[in-house]
Design goal:
- Helix content is 15%, strand content 32%.
- It contains 1 helix and 4 strands; from the N terminus they run βββαβ.
- It has one helix at residues 55-65, and strands spanning 21-27, 34-40, 46-52, 72-74.
- The chain has a 4-stranded mixed beta sheet.
- A hairpin with a 6-residue loop joins strand 1 (21-27) and strand 2 (34-40).
- The longest helix is centred in the C-terminal third of the chain and has 11 residues, at 55-65.
- It is globular and about 35 Å long.
């Protein structure tokens, strides 16, 4: 086997209210820092979940919350 997973821990699945919230990446124009979280569709309020430092962490966010499709970036 050429490709073997290095970590054997399971991802704990979590959920969010798809009716009222949308997954987003909040990006800083100045520092380039990205935070994955959810934005309230009505109020626009952002709820931060995790700091993102690599594409692998975006994938972890996707897998944890079962997110498919594009994640919108907000600034």
């Amino acid at each position: 086997m050429l490709f073997k997973k290095k970590n054997n821990h399971h991802i704990v699945k979590k959920s969010y209210d798809k009716e009222t919230k949308r997954p987003v990446l909040k990006c800083s124009i100045c520092t380039g820092e990205q935070v994955a979280g959810f934005q309230d569709k009505k109020t626009g309020k952002f709820e931060d979940i995790m700091l993102v430092r690599s594409p692998a962490e975006i994938e972890l966010f996707r897998e944890t919350y079962d997110i498919t499709g594009e994640i919108k970036k907000i600034y």
